[in-house]
Amino acid sequence: AMIRVGVNGYGTIGKRVADAVEAQPDMEIIGVAKTQPNFEAHTAVKRGYPMYAAIPERAPLFAEAGIEVAGEVDELVAEADIIVDCTPSGIGEQNRELYETHHTPAIFQGGESADVADVSFNARSNFDAARDADYVRVVSCNTTGLSRVIAPLEEEYGVEKVRATLVRRGGDPGQNSRGPINDILPNPIKVPSHHGPDVKTIFPDLEIDTLGLKVPATLMHVHALNVTLGDDVTGAHVRQLLEDEDRIYVIPEGLGIDGAGKLKDLALDAGRPRGDLWENCVWGESIGVNGRDLYLFQAIHQESDVIPENVDAIRAMFDLEDKETSMQRTDRQLGVGI
Ligand code: NAD
């Protein structure tokens, strides 16, 4: 039987999760819940997703906008086998009680604090930790990007310490009130930043320090990584290791891809939905080694790298497939892999 999935919060992440779930053979979208009948609500209707009112008093606004409402969010939660909560940071925590009331398992996103769920999840790193769990948090875009690199390095060489500088986009393309629009902000100013502890929700024993900045960009984040490995390595060996990862795209030399803008163009040229880049994009030329110290640059598409992870989390929670089978199926159905 297909797993019946509801999405609560149909914004940047929610609309992508809905399409990704719908593309899988073993799960389906039975409805999405929204607070307001904006353009994304009309997108949901065009996609054929039944619309539920997240705030019951606002249901009439949907009718006025010509959108038929299938019911209230309560009913969606009661009907669904699982809810993927994609509401803004902090709202997921408030919603947990609603899910518990209906005994409906739920997935939360990385904007929530780790204690919203029993398990923090990255498919490549700890798929089995989510097996049979009722409440799982798919970690943030940055933590997902870091985890995908750390997992193979840890398995192959052992990791002594990770140091990462995260150059973060000021906001997503539609978030026109965010910034800075002309500045370079150490952000958070306090170092090391909170991003390292978040990675430790996936790798509890890892030594990691992170620093964050915010810049006037909307396209992607860029990470500068230094990883002290357990063994002396060669750049070529590390490169091969990363090339073998399906959710890492090692950008070849010679393509002229010198930044996030051209990566986004590559995705749009390929006809990818919403120009999404589900993979970490590691510049091959940047993979440099000095003894046990590895350096590299990677770009992370904040709007989409967590999407395949949400699909895999559903399979883990319902014990549908093993890790490799799930990840491969997700990737095939979405078109992950450049
Ligand atoms: P968003 O603002 O684009 O979308 C959130 C949606 O939820 C909006 O449609 C909003 O109207 C709706 N909403 C608000 N209150 C609601 C409620 N009470 N019930 C139901 N729906 C409600 O936000 P987003 O960027 O998609 O972020 C969602 C979560 O994903 C956050 O935890 C965020 O930290 C995390 N996340 C975001 C990104 C990113 O870069 N955008 C990346 C990874 C993880």
Automatic annotation (TrEMBL):
Return one GO MF term: NAD binding
Query: To which pathway does this protein belong?
Result: Carbohydrate degradation; glycolysis; pyruvate from D-glyceraldehyde 3-phosphate: step 1/5
Q: Where does NAD(+) bind?
A: T12, I13, G111, R169, Q302
Domain of life of the organism in this record? Archaea
Q: Which reaction does it catalyse?
A: D-glyceraldehyde 3-phosphate + phosphate + NADP(+) = (2R)-3-phospho-glyceroyl phosphate + NADPH + H(+); D-glyceraldehyde 3-phosphate + phosphate + NAD(+) = (2R)-3-phospho-glyceroyl phosphate + NADH + H(+)
Q: Which family does it belong to?
A: Belongs to the glyceraldehyde-3-phosphate dehydrogenase family.
What is the name listed in the Swiss-Prot or TrEMBL entry for this protein? Answer: Glyceraldehyde-3-phosphate dehydrogenase
